[in-house]
Amino acid sequence: MWYFSEEEKALQEMCRDFANKELAPFAEKHDHEETFNLDAFKKMGEIGLLGITADPKFGGSGLGATAATIVMEEFGKACAGSTLSYLAHAMLCVNNINSNASEEQKEKYLPKLISGEHIGCMGMSEPAYGSDAVGMQCKATKQGEEYIINGNKMWITNAQYADIVYLYTRTGSDKKDLTTFIVEKGTPGFSVSKEIHKMGMRSSPTGELSFENAKVSLKNRVGEEGQSVEHMMKNLEIERLTISGISLGIAQACVDQCFKYSLEREQFGKPLGNFQMIQKMLAEMAAETQMMRHFLYNICYQWDKGQVSNTAASMVKLQLPKMATKIALDAIQIHGGYGYSREFPLERMMRDNKLNEIGAGTNEVMIMIIAKNMLKEAAKKMG
Predict the structure, then answer these.
(1) In this predicted model, what pLDDT tens digit does every residue of 245-302 receive, in sequence order?
(2) How many angstroms separate the CA atoms of 382 and 373, rounded?
């Protein structure tokens, strides 16, 4: 993008090189085996990517949404599953602790999370509460200098590998009485109760967290009781932008593969790219991907300057994953039987991207947010 700083351009090149060497060659293997590329994850810590938005005094890079999305795009081209695990660690756990925790908590937890010694996750969704996140029922009850936590969290990325959970709980009867805790692996009463097998993002481990009278120290509470809704909504904005970066990477990988295939594959004695129907599909896929790129990075740029509304972030999250799924399906169509087979990565990319239409807020929830906010604005203009 024209406004990328020299640092961001260097980051892009570094991530592209890393993805080509450490992610792409192993993507199919980890997808097929439903395994986590732990070696690559640890190396992300070694090159300083696991704390992309965190304070440099704790080992972070101190960068913003634009830089984080650059990482997502470049990694997403190679292996979307590994990128989703990176997002859960760097944006949902590390970024939340960096933004909301006390100095003492940051000093205790961030260095090991940023180095890759520890892996993080976030506990928000529950078996009966996905889109209605503030309706969650996992409850924390204060007893002296401790809290007793009971409940379950579902669809938790990195659950099986996490050393640290950034956990949302209910601490009052009001729907907005939500409080956050940092829960460590090995806490009595806390366990990973179920491993979840998925259609896509199969190289990203997903599980259910269970809390049965789990005792967590008051020192592990993030902020005051009842403050977490504001923290949650702010972090959802950058989550929605960065997960859209994965979709952009998937779309670009599909486009690149289709142009290569259209030059190599022959039908009726000439290259596939000579046929006008194929040219139409190629041109539209490329144009749609470029529109995605400009829309996404424009909003990231504004977010870094503190100018982004919830509406804008929701618009990005609605349109990019949806468009990337269309592009992936078109790419499969261009490849015919090869596209439908596992000989090419396109069917994996389509399966992986479908998650991005669900996670971090479904398409339907994004529509509700956008319409509600814009109707309010329209009503104000009408007086």
Answers:
(1) 999 999 999 999 999 999 999 999 999 999 999 999 999 999 999 999 999 999 999 9
(2) 15
For residue 264, indicate whether it is catalytic: no
Number of Cα atoms under 13 Å in the Cβ half of residue 153: 27
In the set 239, 288, 347, 357, the catalytic residue is 239
Cα separation, 148 vs 225, whole angstroms: 14
pLDDT of residue 355: 98
Q: Any residues with CB less than 8 A from the CB of 124 and at least 6 apart, and which?
A: 133, 136, 153, 168, 232
